Amino acid sequence: MNNYERLVEWFRTKGDKAIIALSGGVDSAVVALAAKAALGSGAMAITADYKTLAQEELATARQVAKEIGVQHIIIEYDELKNSDFVRNDDLRCYHCRTELGQHLAEQASKYGITLIVDGTNVDDLSDYRPGIRALRENGVKSPMVELGMGKAEIRAIAKRFGLSIYDRPSNACLASRIPRGDKVTYEKLRRIESSEIAVKSVFGVRQVRVRDHGDVARVEVGRDELPKMFDIEKLALLDSKLKELGFKFVAIDAAGYRTGSLVMVDDKRAS
């Protein structure tokens, strides 16, 4: 029995209904795929449309739910009404996921479902992820962690079953582009989202982060895509577009995209 079959079997041993927190990424998509295979109409995918979710992510979640054929519900709430989240300290993700877990629990109670799962995998455990702890505290389980499944295997499963997002770059909420300690605002989130759309449209890159440092937009793209940025005319166009959005300076990060880069910047500043 391969790990996908074990994942399907995992759901079969847990009852006849489950809620899957579907983010729009490949991990939760594979979990939803297995839940649908095991439980049929008893599988329900839920996507939270909160203010830090890029509309591209929401559209992807809708698309993958259709591909899987799983029942899909979108719930809406405003994270920026949570002062603990807006403060943007070391526990921002904890506050975010605590609120998500509570909303998922409400939906589970509404539909008479006791099992709630997410797409966390073993590779996620190597980073500092207070959000994972928050979900655990709210009863959300991670079947792929229990089965020892990692990212490469998950992508291979998604490709085997024809999911369009099998090679989609990982993403994170828009608030992750705001330096720790700087308050999260609607204006910053919309500016970041618009800036990342601009980078993708001008350069045709897939992995993009625009870090908001006040007057400075620090643009990160995947290391394998950095050569695409060496175009003077396109750089001038991007500079114009991002300045129209309110930035005074636009910087291309020569190191390329890497997770936790804002934390590293903050640590250096502190020292």
Per CATH, which architecture of the largest domain? 3-Layer(aba) Sandwich
Helix content: 40-55%
N-to-C SSE series?
Answer: HEHEHEHHEHEHHHEEHEH
Our count of domains comes out at 2
**Tally of contiguous helical segments:** 11
What would you give as the CATH superfamily of the largest domain? HUPs
The average pLDDT score comes to 93
- Residue ranges: pLDDT <50 for 5 or more in a row? 263-271
What general form does the structure show? globular
Largest sheet: 5 strands, parallel
Structural class label: alpha/beta
Kindly state the number of beta strands: 8
Distance between the termini: 51 Å
Strand order of the largest sheet: 3-2-1-4-5
Global Rg: 19 Å
Sheet-strand content, in percent, reads 5-15%
**CATH class descriptor name of the largest domain:** Alpha Beta
CATH topology of the largest domain: Rossmann fold
Question: What does this entry look like structurally?
Answer:
This protein is an alpha/beta fold. It has two domains: about 5-160, Rossmann fold; about 175-270, GMP Synthetase, Chain A, domain 3. It contains eleven helices and eight strands. The protein has helices spanning about 5-10, 25-40, 55-70, 85, 90-110, 130-135, 145, 150-160, 185-205, 230-245, 260-270, and strands at about 20, 45-50, 70-75, 115, 140, 210-215, 215-220, 250. It has a five-stranded parallel sheet, sandwiched between helices. Strands 6-7-8 form a three-stranded mixed sheet, with helices on one face. α2 (about 25-40) packs parallel to α3 (about 55-70), α2 (about 25-40) packs across α8 (about 150-160) and α9 runs antiparallel to α10. The longest helix is centred in the middle third of the chain and has 20 residues, at about 90-110. It is globular, with a radius of gyration of 19 Å. The protein starts with a helix and ends with a helix. Residues about 265-270 have low confidence and may be disordered.
